[in-house]
């Protein structure tokens, strides 16, 4: 079978049976939009950083959209689904970091993520993950 035929048949039947893949594709687009919004809101837009992020996100989007149907055809659906779920968690932490930097607070989950996230990767300052109450408790 021709590769494009396999991919076409996969998307022709619909992606209803593979919601994790659809969720990952949506999350990737949402992460791009939030990253751009964060840079715009913080006045820290850098074309090189934007280009690097956009290229990596678009590459992940295309690889997922094109390779997943081939993996399903090859019978590797369960192994690739594990990768998809791990990428959902990775992009989810990126989305939470961007939301946190934009000032959106999600109780409990947000605090846990902000304390355990790779602060170097997401450029989160201590003020972003330390509540005012915690600061005042430390000074007493």
UniProtKB/TrEMBL annotation:
The keyword Iron-sulfur does not apply. Keywords: Membrane, Transmembrane, Transmembrane helix. It is found in: Membrane. It is a multi-pass membrane protein. Its main location: membrane. Belongs to the bacteriophage holin family. Cp-1 holin subfamily. It holds the Pfam family Phage_holin_4_1. The chain crosses the membrane at residues 20-41, 53-76, 82-104. GO terms for cellular component: membrane. The keyword Transmembrane helix applies. It comes from the Bacteria. It comes from Streptococcus vicugnae. InterPro entries: Phage_holin_4_1 (IPR006480). This is Holin.
């Amino acid at each position: 079978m021709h590769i494009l035929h396999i991919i076409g048949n996969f998307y022709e039947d619909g992606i209803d049976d593979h919601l994790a893949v659809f969720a990952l594709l949506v999350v990737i687009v949402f992460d791009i939009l939030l990253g751009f919004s964060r840079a715009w809101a913080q006045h820290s837009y850098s074309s090189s950083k934007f280009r690097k992020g956009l290229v990596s996100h678009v590459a992940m989007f295309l690889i997922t959209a094109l390779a997943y149907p081939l993996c399903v055809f090859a019978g590797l659906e369960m192994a690739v689904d594990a990768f998809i779920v791990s990428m959902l968690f990775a992009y989810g932490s990126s989305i939470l970091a961007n939301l946190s930097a934009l000032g959106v607070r999600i109780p409990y989950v947000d605090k846990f993520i902000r304390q355990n996230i790779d602060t170097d990767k997401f450029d989160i300052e201590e003020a972003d993950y330390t509540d005012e109450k915690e600061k005042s408790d430390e000074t007493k």
